[in-house]
Amino acid sequence: MRIRILSLFVALCALSPLVAQAQTPPVGDVNKGRAMWMGGGGSGFCMLCHGMQAGGSFGPDLAGGRGLTFAQFKRAVRQPWGVMPSYPKIDDQGLAHLYAFLKSLPPSTGDKVPDWSVANPPAGAPLGQVLGVQFGCGQCHGPEIAHPRRDIGAKAKGFDFEHFKKIIYETAPPTMGVFNKDRLSEPIAREIYNYMLTAGWRTFLWGTSTIKTEGANQVVTVTVDNKGEKDKGLAGEDITVSLLVPAGFTVVSGTADVGGKYVGVSKGVEYVTNPGVLSPFRLMNPNPQVKKEKGDFAIFTIKKVEAGAKTSVSLTLAGSGFPTMTGSTITWNKPAIKRPASVTLTDDRTAAKGDILWGPSPEFLLPARPAGK
Ligand code: HEC
Ligand code: HEC
Known about the structure:
alpha+beta, Cytochrome Bc1 Complex, Chain D, domain 2, Immunoglobulin-like, 5-stranded mixed beta sheet, 5-stranded antiparallel beta sheet, 10 strands, binds heme C
């Protein structure tokens, strides 16, 4: 007997490091967790559904950890209980960072459930739009699911519902997570897809700019790049590039590549300011920080940019200092946005006519101000 107990004891001692290893979660880093919470490291933009400080929004408050053990937390992210997408690509170490970050926050004490980042569309909105918001797509993509319609526009030829299903259930980018068929079932997916199709696939136009000093002048060159796949993506047609003439500068001249034209300066045009916060992941719609102002714009037109092609326009400015081109836009009329007449909740990043990219934003990359300018 004594021998038996002793051997059991010995066996347990031998096992215990193993047991301890399996139960001890990796050590998390609060700062890394915070970055992941905000969408860094392919983590899933948790904050868009759970709030910046994890106070809750579309999903429950998680600040303070909600009393979950690491194992429970891990299961909730890998196999969510309800409509939340799952994040199979976040490894245990990443989960430990997120867990550490949440644990570091003071638990929320408010008695009111915070608003969703993107509100439910009002009565009368198309069913697919309502479902798109209620199943979480809208929290990341806005009420009109504009970005995915552009991603699809970049490979529109032959794209159908089968491709769409494959994305949302299997191949979605790690930052999006994959949806569970038992929660977001096929009929719901089809309704969301039909809404997106009716609103129309968008051209994947992208703007970048450079600024070069030439003598006393500054030359701003904007490249309009159609990121669509050659022969598969949609062409952009009837394009307008509007460059807001920065204060303290005057326009000397404008030039454009073949197919483009410099039209001239339009004075006193109303434009939207503070578009930086209109990034794809801005938190409120409409965004209260957006203001309308008046300014002068140098206008260029471009007939067409095929998928996979690019073209550029240049503006020569006289003046001193660094011309900040904030407020500039690229818009196009074809393919047009086909908003169903009943849509009352619109995305403040897309214009009523044609389409629009605000600058600066991840879509319209403006050069950083060099040191000392
Ligand atoms: C599309 C919105 C959405 C996103 C994005 C999202 N969640 Fe959730 N989350 C929810 C909802 C809604 C719930 C409630 C359960 C459900 O419906 O799945 C939830 C529940 C949870 C729970 C379980 C809470 C509990 O009490 O059991 C955890 C943990 C969690 N989310 C963590 C995360 C983390 C970490 C991320 C980012 C990697 C994330 N969530 C991203 C919507 C989201
Ligand atoms: C947690 C945030 C998040 C949620 C929730 C989310 N997405 Fe995404 N989705 C992304 C990101 C990030 C991308 C990649 C960049 C982009 O298009 O904005 C993406 C890309 C896509 C793409 C293009 C993928 C490709 O392979 O071309 C489609 C289509 C899409 N999402 C549809 C949806 C639909 C439909 C829903 C709701 C069922 C949804 N998304 C929910 C974040 C999200």
